[in-house]
Amino acid sequence: MADSEEGFGLPTTPADSEAKELQAEAKQDTQLGATSKSPTSPQAAFTQQGMEGIKVFLHERELWLKFHEVGTEMIITKAGRRMFPSYKVKVTGLNPKTKYILLMDIVPADDHRYKFADNKWSVTGKAEPAMPGRLYVHPDSPATGAHWMRQLVSFQKLKLTNNHLDPFGHVSTGGGRRAPRSVLHPRVASPTTIMAMSPIPTSIVLAGITQLKIENNPFAKGFRGSDDMELHRMSRMQSKEYPVVPRSTVRQKVSSNHSPFSGETRVLSASSNLGSQYQCENGVSSTSQDLLPPANPYPISQEHNQIYHCTKRKDEECSTAEHPYKKPYMETSPAEEDPFYRSSYPQQQGLNTSYRTESAQRQACMYASSAPPTDPVPSLEDISCNTWPSVPSYSSCTVSAMQPMDRLPYQHFSAHFTSGPLMPRLGSVGNHTSPQIGDTHSMFQHQTSVSHQPIVRQCGPQTSIQSPPSSLQPAEFLYSHGVPRTLSPHQYHSVHGVGMVPEWSENS
DNA sequence: TCTCTCACCTT
DNA sequence: GAAGGTGAGAG
User: Fold this and answer.
1) CA A487, CA A477: separation in Å to the nearest integer?
2) What letter would DSSP give residue A418?
3) How far from chain centre, in Å, is Cα A373?
4) Tell me: the pLDDT tens digits for A220-277?
5) End-to-end CA distance of chain A
6) Protein CA at A54 to nucleotide C1' at B7, angstroms
7) Which bases in strand B are touched by protein, i.e. have an atom under 7 Å from a CB?
8) Where in the numbering of this chain does the T-box domain appear (predicted)?
9) Which end of chain A has a smaller Cβ tally under 10 Å, C or N?
10) Residue A272: CA count within 13 A, CB half-sphere
11) Nearest-CA residue to the C1' of C3?
12) Is A443 helix (H, G, I), strand (E, B) or coil?
């Protein structure tokens, strides 16, 4: 897939010329953040600190959209699995000389528990109390604004796990059978999408997702392949009870009328809906997408969702229809399509060279809140924008500017995220005056959070992450908002994670 | 329901 | 060549 992400609500009100230039460069990226403009808003102080121009663009927006349309979900293991599509963003509007910490965490999208039955996800009860969350600190942190803006910021190595005891600091999304009780919420930008977690057997249940991943994830390339390979593989895996049937022959695109996922029709909005922005009272602008009401966390009525990826056990109900996504996304691998990232990252120099190695990245810091949020359901209005619907989103990112970087106000972990019904989000650590930060001086000058939203579903040891309901247009992947620097760590979570339980695992 | 293992692939 | 990621089946 080409690295084309234009036409998705690009910034229209850059804070300064530099931001404009960067925006121009990011023209193919998805806008994730908006600008805080109102001087009378709660974000006024933030604005004064120069956070108003910070924007975050989601990379590979089209791919995210594809997954969003189908209903993203992923299998999470105890060993930890990377998210796919990987979370990459382009940040603009930072002060080139100021140091920032880039964080990401995962929060529940809602407080429900889900089960997959009758070919659909349905609420089975209320989610259990949220667990303390973790924040994944980008291994390059802290780094100057120039550094962050120089190239894409990739969270590709972030792993999700359902093992809350994970010693590597993977992001826990919870696990066990209870799974999808929540939708995760990306928090860097306006949450326009939802990430819900669902308990899924041991494989992805939503049709289309598997194929999408196979076609796009280079590591799953082994599942692509010719008919010969299909036959070979099927032959290898065939059981005594089932005949060898090429996978290509067991996929079916079912008509709407017969889809087991029949339900409300999700209509991906036109670009007009994606690009328009609204000004929040707090000064944070958001897109019209933000105004959309929360939708069914697991709408599976889209056309794409009606595509069955059958297994041998299902071939009786399948035909030979080919997956519509197969071709479009087979052209290039994510790595191939990302020349910007590939070319620029290796050239990084300066402050953070020590973070460049693989081992260093694995040592990316993980931080957990000391106490779980009182409200498992993030109220976005409480965060920064009252037009921000309390809709779970998938991931969020926060940019924190800081001066000294002695210690972060969170419990430290070594590397990955463990799973729980969480939503990844990039969160900022800055703007705290908490004693935990170290001294009487605020470590951070300002902070901006950015988020976009895929849905994460979770199931037992193997959890699935699901994409946001289509009614929540992923179109608006740009957003940013500030947080008063006077917040304590606890307050921070109130702001960024109200209800977001970045982590709680429930392994059985 | 969950863990292990597999073949195949990328890094 | 080693390490690691992937979806899926077996148990």
Assistant:
1) 26
2) P
3) 20
4) 888 776 554 455 454 544 433 333 333 333 333 222 233 323 323 222 222 223 222 2
5) 39
6) 45
7) 1-4, 7-11
8) 58-225
9) C
10) 0
11) A358
12) coil
CATH class given for the domain over A17-203+271-290+363-496: mainly beta
Using an 8 Å Cβ cutoff, are A7 and A270 in contact? no
Q: What is the mean pLDDT of residues A297-317?
A: 33
Cis peptide before A376 (omega within 30 of 0): no
Confidence of residue A96 (pLDDT cuts 50, 70, 90): very high
Q: Which protein residue's Cα is closest to nucleotide B3 at C1'?
A: A461
CA atom of A235 to C1′ atom of C11, Å:
19
pLDDT at A19 over 60: no
SS3 A42: coil
CA of A464 to C1' of B2 (A): 14
Rounded CA–C1' distance between A206 and C6, in angstroms: 17
Which residue(s) pair with A400 in the sheet? A101, A447
DSSP string, A152-221: -EE-TT-EEES-TT-TT-PEEB--TTT-TT-EE---SS---S-EEEEE-SSS--STTHHHHHHHH-GGGG
Q: What is the DSSP string of A324-365?
A: TTTTTTTSS-TTTT-HHHHHHGGG--STTGGG-SHHHHHT--
Q: Does the pLDDT at position A173 exceed 50?
A: yes
List bases, strand C, within 7 Å of protein CB: 4-11
Determine the number of helices (DSSP H) and then strands (DSSP E) in chain A.
Answer: 11, 25
pLDDT for A50: 61
Measuring alpha carbon to C1', the residue closest to nucleotide C5 is A219
Q: How far is the CA of A378 from the C1' of B1 (A)?
A: 30
Which region holds residue A330: left if phi is over 0, alpha if psi is between -120 and 50, else beta?
Answer: alpha
Task: Pick out the nucleotide with least CA–C1' distance to A217.
Answer: C6
DSSP state of A133: P
Burial of A203 by CB count in 10 Å (0-12 exposed, 13-18 middle, 19+ buried)?
middle
d(CA A212, CA A229): 18
